[in-house]
Write a sequence for this structure.
């Protein structure tokens, strides 16, 4: 490469963290310096990610990968760097049976002392009474042993009670949840098996997939708006608000409360074109690498291959740097990275 061209290339990468799309044929195969989205295919919808020692584990909604991998009852993936992922097993040996039918959606996994707790949704499309359950394991890879229902929608008084997110604050356990009927927060019993106390609404009817991240004295509430599962027509996008207290009120950059159905500052949206992505959303936990860079994982659908042969939405796993500007997060250009991107730094 000519010296001037090499200098221009270096400036581009240092400035934007990406090289042009055509620079690398398959950076996910062995390269540890750069990568390209998606970091796992064909499907890992509604991801949750945890770090255990020097490894990462990712979990996704029950799905049938058809001829590209078959049926999976909550896939468990393992990685050393967030880029190269290996399928390990399904989280469950058998499906929970506290509902007569439904899918196990949007697992949220957290290490709680020496155990691994998975909160999950149990629902069908249009289910009048979905619920949230809990399963526990001694290993991040499972198998997870079901503990039964934490609550049903009718019991807790919130329609479409799915998409759980577990967190701890001041020695107490909490669960955030909800899907287009408000996002809510409640305290949990010490064993995590039941909701106790009052439920508090923290966002309006335009969001689902709650995730709360604490940074520099603020609680950041991420949520997904739009449609998740219409293939190339999916409109999912990630919005955020922040608060000084866990229970809110959460507001966006303009000061509008997230309880307002039109509020939320944009973190990520779909992109058009040859390498466009539809419906990026339902982000996982924020992971910080060894150089202090934050990373956001989420699912997205390439416009060029939106579904599997069996009709399943091809919601692949994406990874992008999370950029903080004046206390507010977003990914670069607020769209999924489509070029070769400087990879996370772990263990070197």
């Amino acid at each position: 490469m000519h010296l001037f061209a090499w200098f221009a290339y270096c400036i581009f990468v240092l400035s934007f963290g990406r090289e042009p799309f055509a620079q690398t044929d398959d950076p996910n195969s062995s390269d540890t310096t750069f990568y390209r989205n998606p970091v796992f295919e064909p499907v890992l919808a509604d991801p949750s990610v945890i770090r255990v020692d020097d490894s990462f584990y990712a979990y996704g909604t029950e799905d049938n990968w058809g001829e590209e991998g078959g049926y999976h009852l909550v896939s468990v993936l393992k990685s050393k760097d967030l880029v190269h992922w290996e399928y390990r097993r399904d989280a469950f040996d058998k499906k929970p049976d506290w509902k007569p039918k439904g899918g196990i959606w949007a697992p949220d996994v957290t290490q709680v002392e020496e155990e691994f707790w998975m909160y999950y949704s149990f629902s069908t499309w249009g289910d009048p009474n979905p619920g949230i359950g809990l399963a526990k394991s001694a290993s991040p890879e499972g198998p997870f042993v079901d503990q039964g229902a934490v609550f049903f929608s009718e019991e807790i008084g919130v329609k479409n009670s799915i998409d759980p997110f577990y967190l701890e604050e001041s020695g107490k356990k909490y669960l955030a949840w909800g899907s287009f009927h408000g996002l809510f927060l409640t305290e949990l019993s010490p064993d995590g098996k039941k909701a106790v106390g009052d439920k508090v609404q923290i966002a309006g009817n335009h969001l689902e997939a709650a995730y709360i991240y604490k940074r520099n004295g603020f609680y950041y509430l991420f949520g997904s708006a739009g449609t998740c599962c219409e293939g190339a027509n999916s409109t999912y996008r990630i919005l955020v608000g922040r608060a000084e207290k866990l229970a809110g009120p959460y507001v966006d950059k303009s000061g509008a409360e997230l309880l307002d159905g039109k509020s939320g500052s944009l973190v990520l949206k779909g992109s058009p074109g040859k390498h466009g992505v539809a419906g990026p959303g339902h982000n996982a936990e924020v992971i910080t690498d060894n150089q202090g860079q934050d990373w956001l994982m989420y699912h997205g659908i390439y416009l060029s291959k939106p579904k599997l042969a069996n009709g399943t939405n091809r919601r692949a796993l994406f990874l992008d740097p999370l950029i903080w500007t004046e206390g507010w997060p977003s990914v670069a250009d607020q769209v999924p990275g489509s070029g070769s991107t400087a990879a996370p730094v772990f263990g070197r």
